[in-house]
Amino acid sequence: MRSMRIIHTEDIIKNIKEMCIEANVTLASDVEEKIIKASSEERVSLGKQILEQLCENLEIARNEFIPICQDTGMVVVFLKVGQNIYIQGGSLEEAVNEGIRQGYQQGYLRKSIVSDPIIRENSNDNTPGIIHYEIVSGDCLEITVAPKGFGSENMSQIYMLKPSDGVEGIKKAVIDTVKNAGPNACPPIVVGVGIGGNFEKCAYLAKKALTRNLNKRSHLEHIKRLELELLEEINQLGIGPGGLGGRTTALGVNIESFPTHIAGLPVAINICCHVNRHVTRSL
Amino acid sequence: MDKYISTPLTNEVIESLQVGDYVYITGLIYAARDAAHKRIFEAILEGKEIPLDLNNNIIYYLGPTPAREGQVIGSSGPTTSSRMDKYTPLLLDHGLKGMIGKGKRNQEVIEAIKKNKAIYFAATGGAGALLSKKIKKSKVIAYEDLGPEAIRELYVENFPVVVVIDSYGNNLYQIINQSS
Q1: Around Cβ B90, how many Cβ atoms within 10 Å?
Q2: Domain containing A140 — which CATH number?
Q3: Measured between CB atoms, which of A67, A122, A186 is closest to B102?
Q4: Structure confidence by residue, pLDDT tens digits, A30-44
Q5: Out of B64, B65, B127, whose CB is closest to A57?
Q6: Distance of alpha carbon A117 from alpha carbon A47, whole angstroms
Q7: Do B156 and B134 contact (CB within 8 A), yes or no?
Q8: ipTM for the assembly
Q9: B138 touches chain A (CB under 8 A)
Q10: Fold observed for domain B2-179
């Protein structure tokens, strides 16, 4: 029998704490580069002014350690758990939440979680996070921390399309969602799309799609084509930065797909603002 | 067009502003969002006193991050305004003149803006670090138990916003939507 690799919960807590803070003050370089490029290319003057503000905002956030956005989000954590590791020191779920708690306290991040959706009292430490576990081969623990603001989360949609709706139906669902989101989702946005699976699987895929590098296209040729066509169509809608007009409505469209049932074509569209935060580390 | 205004607002200033104007605001404004709006709204309906003076003032839809030592306030960008739509017409009827947020408003709010000669500005969503630098003073004045949703009094200098709905009821988002 192969021996187990031990990972201590203290390491997990420390890393998640640091990742929460890092994600909220610096953007991944692919996202930042897209914003800078858009700012030099945007022709509509109000839209251009907004993009210039966003570039300046990122500089200030990084240099002065101020969160990029005051909505420091609900924390989504993707864990790829190697099946040959042993977690020592307590529960993995508690370790993740303790990391979030310490990160949001020590990083001066906003506590935006209410403990009950109806009673609505703030939990005061931004926990719990939403944890997605994936069991994989190997002896590593890969952690992705993706705090997500709710301005854009609220504009996301799921469509249970019919197989006969096809690619045109998918496109219409995405375009309608982006149009409806308009200025509310803080454009320029990143569009995460999940196609296939079932009701909850497509939503998960859409969220996961947001964590993919914006310069990396799907390895499936027909999905890659769809990503490029949708980006082009979205940027012709004229919504623009801040919804104030222009060609920069989306920075990218990332699509993840999965097999589905003969009777269905589920499509989820998870809208993210330009503050598309995600940090990945492997322990 | 770039314009510079100060608070409290006057009808003359409000009437001079039009959709698409890029406006820099200086003076005292209030910060309040969802939970604070619910309380203010209920207090007005119950005929109770409210903890802020709405007359000719501006409410900024904001829940900042905590300030570090030496900072006036943490990250301070706008939140989505439509969640305040339910409460807004009543506040406008009670003297509120301006709002800063981001995103669409419903028809009732637009009508109330016209009727009360008020104005709706958008600040840039997701520019919280930059906007925090325009806030020179900040203090919690009510509902401290609401944490990030407490009501604050802010002193802002050249706070950058865009007029989205003017006092004549013109709506910039709708104009953009129709022209594209």
Answers
A1: 15
A2: 3.30.360
A3: A186
A4: 999 999 999 999 999
A5: B127
A6: 36
A7: yes
A8: 0.93
A9: no
A10: fumarase (3.20.130)
